[in-house]
Design brief:
7 strands; about 140 residues; globular; alpha/beta
């Protein structure tokens, strides 16, 4: 499963639209460790003008934002969920997205693919980006 090739994915034109229509990004697995990719990406997105919402099992604040333990705890609209969790957890994160019903985009970071979960998200009306870095894509396209 770790070598899965993304069969459900967005192209550059769709990714540009996703970024233009996104204001709030929940980051599943946002580490407080500044050396981790999730932290560097979140800081970049924050500096690019997005509101980031950390989802992490511990800490009260990361990058100056209140930390939530799960998507279901977030009391306001989320446009995108950026997933920095292992492939076997992606399905449960996407199930949470579907249960919320207000999420436009599910994005899995570089090296993360779960086609079955991605198809479920797509079937539920969400845009899906897999195996791409939000920071790299945003920097390249904007």
């Amino acid at each position: 499963m770790d070598c899965e090739f993304p069969s459900v994915n967005s192209n550059d034109k769709e990714i540009i639209e996703i970024f233009k229509n996104t204001k709030t990004i929940a980051i599943a697995g946002l580490s407080p460790n500044e050396e981790k990719a999730s932290n560097r990406v979140a800081k970049y997105l924050q500096n690019a003008g997005f509101k980031i919402v950390p989802i992490y099992p511990k800490e009260d604040t990361i990058l100056g934002e209140k930390v939530y333990r799960s998507l279901s705890e977030i009391p306001f609209k989320i446009d995108m969920v950026d997933i920095f969790r292992k492939s076997d957890v992606i399905a449960s994160v996407i199930d949470e997205c579907i249960a919320r019903g207000d999420i436009n985009t599910v994005w899995t970071q570089l090296g993360l693919v779960n086609n079955e979960a991605a198809q479920k998200a797509s079937d539920a009306g969400m845009k899906v980006v897999q195996n791409k870095c939000t920071k790299i894509e945003h920097a390249n396209l904007f």
